[in-house]
Here is the input.
Amino acid sequence: MRGNRHPSVVLAGLVAALVIASPGCTESLSGTDGIADATDAGMDPDTRATGQDATVRPDAATGPDSTTPQDGCQPDYVALFPADRVLRFDLEMATADLQAIVAEASIPMDQPAPEVYYPARVTFEGAVFDDVGARAKGHGTRSPAKPSLKLDFDQFREGQRFYCLEKLNFNNMIADPTMMREAIAYSLFASVGVPASRVSYARLFINGQSYGLYAMVEQVDKRYLKSHIGEKDGNLYKMYYGAFLDYRGADPSLYTVGTWSGVQQYNKETNASQDDWSDLIGLMRTLDEATAATVETTVGIALDIDEILASLSVYSLLGSTDWYGNEGNNYYLYHRSDGAFVFIPWDLDAAFRKSDRDACHAWLTGGGENPGYPLYDRLFLSSTLVAAYEGHLRALLDGAYAEGALHARIDAVATLIRAEAMADPHRAVAEGAPTFDQAVAGLKAFVSEVAGRARDRLATGCSQGQPPPDDCLTACMREPDATPDGCAAWCQSHGG
Here is the structure.
């Protein structure tokens, strides 16, 4: 379903359809408001190309970069998400539209944003894409100086694709002094066979002005599902704050209520016209009714257990403050054709922040009021599944999260982005580590500490129950705004 559109685009789209843009090189000018804009030169941005070799992409293009959506269109993921170079994207849009995006990126994180798309021209390596929808994205990382953006190539020109892809996400990384936490986190999930978005780096210019270095993240959509899971026709659900998978009854309206920042908790991303949520509600009921005696034969069928445990092993070492095991937030579930749900991680910019998580019970240190974590609580009723989880955790510690391997990966990314990261005026500065290289060293130290703690924890084995009360209280008190009474009540309610 299309997102909100700026009201001017109906007429603009009709006009753009009649315009043939010729190649050329025209410098972007800076307007009196300080935001560079194509229209400041007295020209409609829809009639201009950027760069000396820019050419407008034909609607009837064929081949792997066709703008016509076809199942046979195969993206060159290595070229689109390279590991060895930083890409460059140039956007042109009207000054008023850019100002609107900046205003939306200024909205406090606890308030909903309108998510309006505005028309833009996108230039990438000489290819020009007109009528691309651009909007601000994100909650906790909103920034008017460096807004995160979502580009929708299909928003105003139906069927248009960016080398087979419909959407791209540009995350500003303003809370990450290393500018690599998200990229490293996704690579860890991919290393254990969990569907994970591809990530590359890009410099973003808007109306000729540099906005710095961004993480370009693959969108979770039908093409993603086909690429990562091998099918795309099942139901895909996206979860936001408070989506703990707690069973509330059979009525779908019980799961679509607004929560923090007015965001709906459970969202049906595919097959939305079929208002049938029975598969997801059935999963939650199965989790709710599972016991130690039945969990393997009931939940074990409803979920891809091996994939869930693999994803949990990664989360347990990430130290994230924004996931299912903390706020019931930022993840997808896809209902596969064999009947099992698959877990898909999302929005991993809060990774590598808490090094004190219990590797066996990482989800019990989230704090706050919630109905528990049925997804993990039920799985840990089974000693067989606990042992399977320990196996995944050991394999990860001996593989992608092994200190030598992960330190080398961090060093490689640092080499790739060092110049751009150091030049980005919006890069976060870590306390006690003001430089980029100091921040990178801090990330490597985090990895070493977490790996050591996890190995020590595995030496004693993961018990089936909750961690001891003192562990729960200590961990809870490390959370922002925690109080002794609040943590005591939370731990008691969770059996700690």
In short: The first helix runs from residue 9 to 18. The two ends are 44 Å apart (CA to CA).
